[in-house]
Model the fold of this input.
Amino acid sequence: MAYEHTTNFLPAEIVRLDDPLLVSERVAVAAFLAGYSGSTRVSYTTDLRLFAEWCRDRDLNAANIRRPKVPDESRTLGLDRNELGALLVQAGLGDLRDGALITLLALNGLRISEALNADIDDLSTERGHRTLAIVRKGGKHVTVPIAPRTGRALDLYIGERTSGPIFLGVEGGRMDRYCADRMVKRLTKKAGINKRISPHSLRHSFITAALDAGVPLRDVQEAASHADPRTTMRYDRARRSLDRHATYIVSTFIAGATRPG
Done:
């Protein structure tokens, strides 16, 4: 693949000759992507390239497009308590790998990249807790506890293996996110859930379930590794908009006034 000599200081994925971005726009994009790495960087690069192509097809200058406002409520489609339980049951009835990954995602709320990049050596025990060391978004290394149910599912799946990736692909290498996405969709369908669910939806479901269970917002923020508490609050707003809607209070209030004396 050919590249422009005038932009050799930019990342390779930004400087393709067929790239719709102008040189000045490439510099801005490179500066933005410099703050990210791994799968996040790859995803943002793809999104920005598609956006630039969309602008080019419409004779728009990508640098002059105003970013749309992010809604206050999370729009990610998640599972409720009963659906999440049904998915866990279905995963437990199938392949051991299915059960281990679904349980880890649903009960720990990990990003799919965090789960798939984990190795067997990252599993440990600390002060009586089964733990897993993971690399969070932004390269931050943290250790998270795993529930006994999750630990049992991982142990059954790992078996006699002592090293290497926890989750293996069909050819024996590390499982990729596309394989995980297909797994989640297959199990969701088998569980009778008519929603378009992805691995990220299980993270959303974990956060919502934690809030429903009464876990303090600050603790949910830490478990989800949200740098900004406003991110966690978006999930809480989406939940409260139905569960705590004024219609329930008003209907009860009015009903009390209309009872015969």
Summary: The longest strand covers residues 129-135.
